[in-house]
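agent> fetching stored inputs for the nickel (II) ion docking request
agent> found them:
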Amino acid sequence: MLIDSHAHLDSGKFDSDREEVIARAQAAGVDTIVNIGFNRETIPSTMELAEKYPFIYAAVGWHPTDSADMKLEEDLAWIERLCSHPKVVAIGEIGLDYYWDTAPKEVQHTVFREQIRLARYLHKPIVIHNRDAHEDVVRILREENAGEIGGIMHCYSGSWETAKMCLDMGFYISFGGPVTFKNARVPKEVLARVPNDRLLLETDSPYLSPHPYRGKRNESAYVTLVAESAAEIKKISVEEICLMTSQNARSCLSLG
Ligand code: NI
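agent> prediction call returned; pasting tokens
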């Protein structure tokens, strides 16, 4: 029992062997995968996967790096329609990205805020992407009362102080491959302090492969390696980590 709470298995990087990748995840004990559709191309391909595989769920939203391409009214209406699909469990990934210079901050802020408002209106949790924008992400989440719906801080890489503010708003903190790196001192310390009932695991496949596959293509089966690291850091068994994080994902995303 193990859940990959964030994957992009519709990515072109899996075009040659997607079936095998999904079969390997199942063989590794991954019984649920949340695939993320985050722009005009990946929302339809995510929905296709979620409709094809009973154990793959979808999150749909507009990624900050694609926010300049969003037709606000039209695309919000599209996301809203998709949210009534039984396999759509969250709105995301949404947030702010100050690393890639692909959209002005003001545009990112508007797109982020509007999607939080939609999520509150629809009572859907949100999946947060945050790169080099900790302060503004927390400020906007607070200003928009995102705590009302909560959600997931995806592939968390910030400080404990920021994590604490997100936990206080009711968010879950999700860790991926980077926490397995030997030199990942801060993520390991933060993971150790995240309460057991708020911890999630993910791969972000095909990105961010865990050790020893760093730099190679990531896949959902490797969430087992993240679970092993998390168990070591929490000083509990791998079975306990798998059970705990699966229960957390189920309650956060209202999975059956
Ligand atoms: Ni992602």
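agent> quick read of the result: The chain has a mean pLDDT of 97.
agent> awaiting further instructions
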